[in-house]
Amino acid sequence: MLPRSLKNRWYRSRLKDPAYAFLFEPAPQGEFVALDCETTGLDRRRDDIVTVAAVRIRGDRILTSERFEAVVRPVAPMNPEAIKVHRLRERDVATGRAVAEVLPPLLRFIGARPLVGYYLEFDAAMIDRYLRSWLGVELPNARVEISELYYERKYGDAPPGSHVDLSFAAIMRDLGLPQLGQHDAYADAVMTAMMFLGLRDLKARGVRIARSRYTSVNPHSGG
User: Would you place residue 89 in the very low, low, confident or very high pLDDT band (cuts 50, 70, 90)?
Assistant: First the structure.
C-alpha cells in the first residue's frame, strides 16, 4: 500500500474539479473534525449514507457551534438490521437531500483537517465511494482512529491472552463520559470528539487506563 503522502499526490493530479484543491492544502494548526455516518447497511459497495454529521475540534475545545448535519435520501433500500441500530426508516429519510447536494458543503466544512472517528475506515469508505465517481479522488485527510488510541492506552502493555473490549460503550465508560444517545450521527460525532480529547490528554500525561484481570480473548470485541 502506498504511503498516504504519495497517494494524495497522485489523487491531487487526478482531481476533476480544481475548486476542491483545498482538500490537499495544509490543515489549520491544532484543528480536527470528528465525523460519523449512519447508513442503510454495512455493505460498502451497495449501501448508502442516510445521515452524516461532523463537528470541529480546535485545541482542547469541541466547537458545537461549528457543526455539519445532513439527512441523505438513499437509493439503496434500508436493511432491517440497520433500522434496529439507528431507528431511521425509509420514510424518515425520504425527504433528505441527494448525496450530490450534501457532499460539497461537507467537504467545505471538513477542509484539510484530520478526521477523527470510531471505526472511521467504514465511514470514510462510504464517502470515498461517491467521491471517486464525482471528483476522481478519495478523502486525502489524515485519520485518527479512536479504537486505536484507546487500545494503546488500555491494552498497549497487556500480556498475551488479555480480554480486549473496544466497544464504544467501554471507551465512554472508561473515560467517564456522558452518553448522548448513540447511533445518532451528530451525537456520535460529539462523543467521538470527547473521547479523542480524553484519550489525547491521558497520553500527554502518561496515564494508562486500568484493566480488569481477564485471561480469555474476546474475538468479537470490536463491535
Answer: confident
Q: How far, in Å, are 20, 82, 104, 175, 211 from residue 108 at the CA level?
A: 8, 28, 6, 31, 41
The answer to whether the beta carbons of residues 111 and 28 sit under 8 Å apart is yes
Predicted confidence at residue 218, as pLDDT, reads 43
Structure-block grid coordinates of residue 198: 480524553
Q: What is the model's pTM?
A: 0.88
Neighbour-count burial of 84, counting CB atoms closer than 10 A to its CB (0-12 exposed, 13-18 middle, 19+ buried): exposed
Straight-line distance from the first to the last Cα atom of the chain, in angstroms, rounded to the nearest whole number: 26
Residue 171 lies in a domain: yes
* Calpha distance 196→118 (Å, rounded): 10
CB 101 within 8 A of CB 71: no
Task: List Cα–Cα distances, 20 to 57, 105, 206, in angstroms.
Answer: 22, 11, 39
Mean pLDDT, residues 35-40 taken together: 92
Q: Does residue 20 sit within a domain? A: yes
Does any domain span residue 117?
A: yes
CB 195, CB 172: distance < 8 Å: yes
For 75, residues 6+ apart whose C-beta sits below 8 A from its C-beta are 48
Q: What's the domain count of the chain?
A: 1
Cβ neighbours of 177 (radius 10 Å): 14
